[in-house]
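Input for the complex:
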Amino acid sequence: MPKRNDLKRIMVIGAGPIIIGQGCEFDYSGSQAVKALKEEGYEVVLVNSNPATIMTDPGLADKPYVEPIEHDTLAAIVRKERPDAILPTLGGQTGLNAALQLAKSGVLEECGVELIGAKAEVIEKAESRELFRQAMENIGLQVPASGIARNMEEVRHYGSVLPFPLIIRPAFTLGGTGGGVAYNMEDLEKVAGRGLAASPASEVMIEQSVLGWKEFEMEVMRDKNDNCVIICSIENLDPMGVHTGDSITVAPAQTLTDREYQKMRDASLAIMREIGVETGGSNVQFGINPADGEIVVIEMNPRVSRSSALASKATGFPIAKIAAKLAVGYTLDELRNDITRETVASFEPAIDYCVVKVPRFTFEKFPGAKDELTTAMKSVGEAMSIGRTFKEALQKGLRSMEIGMPGLGTGFRDPLPEREDIARSLRVPNSRRIFAVRQALLAGFSVEEIFDICAIDPWFVRQIQDIVNMEARIRDFGLSNDMTPANPELAELLRKAKEYGFSDRQLGEMWKRPEDDIRRLRREMGIMPTYYLVDTCAAEFEAYTPYFYSTYETGRELEAADRKKVIILGGGPNRIGQGIEFDYCCCHASFALRDAGIQAIMVNSNPETVSTDYDTSDRLYFEPLTFEDVMHIVELEKPDGVIVQFGGQTPLNLAIPLMRAGVPILGTSPDAIDRAEDRERFQALIQKLHLLQPANGIATSFEEARAVAEQISYPVVVRPSYVLGGRAMAVVYDEAELTEYFAQHVPENPEHPILIDKFLEQAIEVDVDALSDGTDVYIAGIMEHIEEAGIHSGDSACVLPSFSLSYDHVAKIAMQAEALARELRVVGLMNIQFAIKGDDIFILEVNPRASRTAPFVAKATGVPLPYLATQVMLGKTLEELDPWSRRRGGFYCVKEAVLPFNRFPGVDIILGPEMHSTGEVMGMGATFEDAFLKSQLAAGQRLPQRGKVFLSVNDRDKPLLPDVARMYDALGFELLATTGTARLLREQGLKVQPVFKVYEGRPNIVDLIKNGEVSLVVNTASGKRTAHDSKEIRRSALTYGVPYCTTLSGARATARAIGARRDGDIHVESLQEYYAREATK
Amino acid sequence: MKALLVLEDGFALEGRSFTGACESGGEVIFTTAMTGYQEVLTDPSYTGQMVCMTYPLIGNYGVNPEDMESDRVHVSALLVKECCKTPSNWRATESLPDFLVRHGVPGIEDIDTRALTRHLRLHGAMRGVISTSVRDVQELVARANRLPTMEGQNLVTRVAPAAPYRWNGTRPEPVTLAEDGSYVWPEGGSRLVVYDYGIKWNILRLLRAEGFDMLVVPPSFTIEQVRASGAHGIFLSNGPGDPATLHDEIATVRALVREYPVTGICLGHQLLGHAVGGHTRKLKFGHHGCNHPVKDLTTGRIEISSQNHGFCVVIDGVDDVQATHINLNDGTLEGFMHKTRPVLSVQYHPEAAAGPEDGRYLFGRFHAMVRAAAGE
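Predicted:
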């Protein structure tokens, strides 16, 4: 039976901002779904607050709404658009929860909207721990012994009846937020307390631990006729106890016999049926006791998930696309397998390679957070790798991480840690445990010992043992053998080493030769990779999708096409500072190339992205973004150009080596990039153009730093050179803080100098994105930051157009940006950060590449920046493209950052020069206030309309506080402040209620926050010590969901937004409606 | 130890033997099953074939006594990318290399199994040889060409039992028939004579679980002997080789169909196809794997099936039968039933082992048919 004709208009809810546990995989799945629905002729209404998504592009859905994903806004959109159905299963947990709320509040019924894919009852059955456990019992499947607690009394009760260790899982949270492991009653109270607070339902499940059991996942699809297929099985290298998002995982399952696999398959299908997921994809997790094979069901997600994105990329089967089609009535046998074209979608992919996913962590950005992995997810990204063996895939995956590891091993001559230290790194799961396994094997631990300590299956440990043994062979060989191509033994060893996934860098390190030597040696001996196809069917049928991975095998399946072609280098695994925004740009580059009739070739290693969808580009290479791996592709394809400016820092780092290797780099020259990045050349550039930059200097020791700081005067911004995303960057107010900084961040003899800049206090920061063809310059967006300079631009909210800059300032900024673009001969995108202090305009940073804000600017102005930038790189002029005439306006857009602090208990939530945000949202409105308000809602801040606002600011902010206090007073808020601040405000004639600081007595401000008596916290701190004093206030605000501002400018904007909300209803518009407001501005 | 794999058309790949010195030959086929190598190795239907596993990492979970599909290894050789020497699984009792050595069957690794698979897909399954001693490709091509082709080979004689036996729950157990050919049916339930052309033990396990009382017999068992045994129904097993060569067996099946409810799986299905007037043809590279979609035309349901056949049945123009199952990938016949007689059969493997268990219902359907025929 074909698709449903009773549906005309379908609404898809996206996943909103990128947060830990919900990455850009939902842009991938949502975009696929929207495309699939459009293909079937449905009108698609889309809601997503994340501007850096492909799915919100005006050309994709019929009516994209960049509006907050929260109940009232969604209700307004539903009432306005009156869709026939909502497809809730493709927007992650956010989309699912939002749809469920709409169902519960009666909005769906009121507007006659049907939920397709999964009904409300199904969602609840799968998501509620209690209902799920009941359902599993109904079909005779085991779940770990557990109890549901809704308060601390119940928590203690289960603590007394269930055996420790216990796992705590809060209901309805993402990626296990607020969950954890308790080994005793004290742990239990602590973790469960946090879990109850984190759960919107105030419900936690306390469950018998299956720590150390083998963990598996199954990706299942079902159609309305109850046809079910398994798309992929996944085995976790890290056993139970580590969130699957934080585990190294492998597809397909490796250590189960067919009988055991089929048992799990049967269980997955039974679960799908019992829970009642009508159509679409689901994910089921199992634990298996390694001693006897006992199976328990851990959980199921009745929706497309992170694992389904991984399964799609791992097999080539487009789960989201098929899920969307099943939701509108198709059955699996009516849908074609795109890859083979002739066979149907109702089959189970067979793969003939091994897939490894490695999570990417950023613990270094959160001082105070322990590098410990638990059931609450902490990773911010992942890379996937494909190889013919696990060994090859693992090493490719590890070198894709960009954490300085060229594979499993490096530092081959370094002394090993002590046995006890190695054992500790194995025992407590952490982000570097895989490397500890190698060290343990080198230190002489047996496979059995390692298994006993960390429960990683012996199969995996032996695979790593193979790599370690090979490592020894390679090292030893170099000591005593002829290392010329004439040595046949060398050829054999080299080939084997490559089959085991060793990189040239590793081999060079072991043989004390430059990486280039190894390349040359291999080429002379003909040891080059071949590219095999990901085809869903293990070569049983002919496949048409151009999706490849490298391996060292004998066959050849791929020829370079005889046409004009360009390679786009993607961004690799997401991390803080480099995420979906760059993937967005890469995708647009691909679209532009294809539209221009040029073959678009994508290289990326990130399975969450749209860029690694097999139909985004003409060819996809799923490969690590290292020089070696990229050069192999370049040598095969011989492209007319390579685009490095869209994928963030990752490809940019390759620009110079590629250029030296004679690879044509499209757009801005690598030399210009270097001029902007190299400190001295940059200084010369600024001077040449008669521009201003903050006073600065460099230091290689504390003494030098002290001298520089005194000369340019405190406060100063200190950072190591050669870092990304503001890593270890801090504002330092006096010598004591400088001493502290050096003690914490700078080694005795630093490898790279420390950069010291004058910190511009209370300056306004401005971000500018520009597009240039080398002659003309289009100023795409001048974004005014809401937080003052000193907060990393990625963490700062900003508004477009600016709301407080003078015409004169705007004009000057534009002129300076143009001058820089011309001087650097920028061809493509460029981003400049300015700071305005008084009448001076300082240049903080120039990046001649796509910026994190490019997608935001594109959405906020209607000008497809990355697309145009690609056309410019291909030789079009701005005059021809005329971006000026395409510009739309008449509305405000606010970008707000979304921060992951709730994932890192114990970490201060204060903003600073080091970036912490994982994602962003955009609020659109006719006024600044409206846009700001929506940005806050979208970021999860529910701004209060009344109540008590607590004000506590540092000394520098004190003079400005009365104005802000007056704004809240005028809005009818009661003011709370600590003694000193209260006195100050009283002097200004304001009515203030004093409260105790944390150490002054009880009840103090933290008590009030916990008791729900505070509706907004304004708390600023700069400098380490003041920050420490007020940390507990900010932490408790976060934990108890009280909205907070950590800058005065943020507090001011918040007050204006609260005022605006009072004035009217929620106003929602699609992008097209906003764009139609005014042709140009 | 280095080993050379050479196909009859000269395609050659180098690998490494993990079972010591070896020489072997046979039809080279590939299976896309990602699990279940032990079941594949011990499935008698693979007699005369060298099997290439497309999934590259084989042997990870070792070998155990419960997952045997017969009492020995039947493939001529196992071809893999990487064989795991030390297994990891709570049921494993032996490693894959040890198991193959014990059964005297060569195992070759380091084979580019994808290159091999693509070659077979493009040029069809063909004869090949492996050798650890001969390095001359031409010599091996000549050897491969001297091997008999799969078409026209009767391989049932190599794997079928010589005498009747019963399934005691874990293994075959000899039985003696009475002077008059009658059999004391010990279990109760529907009495089934099972023709063993090279049966997979999981079929016996499942028939038993379905409640049948079984007498397993050699292919030469005559219709008279069946009559004497007192059976209620007939089951025709899977098995190796070209069905068209099995003239006597086909004749027996033709006679059985007239008197008994009959069902067949795989080779049994092919013999039934011949018996009702159809014929079989060789597929280019066969169906071997665990992921083929089969549609049950009587219910519209799709099942993911376990497949292992190089020949398929063609019943076009045979009026007495109708197709019940088709393969959704290539439209080939996967099952049929007789319009007037209690006969149903399937090409694929509802007993799975290895593979999905979606087709289990067929054992129930067969049981119901036997009961109905018996007037129950």
